Amino acid sequence: MTILTSVTTFACAVAIGLAATLWVTTGHPAANRIVRVYVTIFRSLPELLCIFIVYFGCEIALRKAAASFGFRPVSISPFLAVTVAIGVQFGAYCAEIFSDAHRSLNPGLFEAAHALGLSRRKVMTRVTIPLTLQAAIPGLGNLFLVMLKISALASVIGLEEVTRRAKIVAGSTREPFASYAIAAACFLVVTAGAAVLQTRLERTFRTTQGA
C-alpha cells in the first residue's frame, strides 16, 4: 500500500506538473499567471492540511450531493483522498522542476524541429516532452523520495500503509520499538531501490544524449 500510494500520487503529480509546464510554453496569455498562482498556493500549504481538506471536504460535498438527489450517503476512500491531495500539491513542485528543465534545453533543438517541417503537436510529443523528461529526471527522483516519506501521513485518515500497520502491531504486541524499526527498514529498502532506479535512468539517458 505504501508503494502503491507513492507511485500513484507521483504519477498524478508528474501529469499535472508536465501539463502546467506545456501550457505555459504554448504562450497562452493567462497560462503563466494561473500556473504561478497554483504553484504559490500549493507550495505554501502543509501536506497534512491538504489531506484533511480533501478528505473531509469531499466527504461533506458527496454527502450533500447524495442528499440532494435522494441517494444514500457516499464516502470517499482514504486512498483516493491521499492521491488527490498529495498529487495536486506536489504537482506544483513538478511544475517548477519541469519549468527549470525546459529552460535548460537548447532553443536550437526546437527551431531545428520546426525547420524540418514538424507540426507543433509533433514537436511537443517528439521533442519537447522527451527532452524535458530527460532533463527533469534528477529532480523527479528526489521528489519521489520525498513523496515516499510523505505517504506516511495517509495513516491519519485511516489508510493502512506501513506506518499505520506498525502502530497497530505495536499496540497489540506492546513492542513499539521493534514495530517502528521494521517500518523504518521497509522505507529504507524502498528508498534504496528507487535511488538505484534513478541512477540507472540517468546513466541511460546520459548515454543516449552522448550518442
Write structural notes for this entry.
- It is found in: Cell inner membrane; Cell membrane.
- Its main location: membrane.
- Belongs to the binding-protein-dependent transport system permease family. HisMQ subfamily.
- This is ABC transmembrane type-1 domain-containing protein.
- The protein has 211 residues and is mostly helical.
- It has a single domain, classed as MetI-like fold, CATH 1.10.3720.10.
- The protein is 82% helix and 0% strand.
- It is built from eight helices and no strands.
- α2 packs across α4, α3 crosses α4 and α6 packs antiparallel against α8.
- The longest helix is centred in the last third of the chain and has 35 residues.
- It is flat.
- 27% of the residues are buried.
- The model has no long low-confidence stretch (mean pLDDT 88).
Topology:
Elements: H1 2-25, H2 31-44, H3 47-68, H4 78-103, H5 107-115, H6 120-150, H7 162-173, H8 176-210
Helix pairs in contact: 1-4, 1-6, 2-4, 3-4, 4-6, 5-6, 6-8, 7-8
Domain ABC transmembrane type-1: 1-198
Protein name: ABC transmembrane type-1 domain-containing protein
Main location: membrane
User: How would a textbook summarize the main sheet?
Assistant: none
Which band does the percent of strand residues land in?
A: under 5%
Overall average residue pLDDT: 88
Number of helices: 8
The topology string of helices and strands comes to HHHHHHHH
CATH superfamily: MetI-like
How many strands in all?
Answer: 0
In which range does the helix fraction lie? over 70%
Gross CATH architecture: Orthogonal Bundle
Structural class: mainly alpha
Membrane topology: Multi-pass membrane protein
Keywords: Cell inner membrane, Cell membrane, Membrane, Transmembrane, Transmembrane helix, Transport
Subcellular location: Cell inner membrane; Cell membrane
Domain ABC transmembrane type-1: 1-198
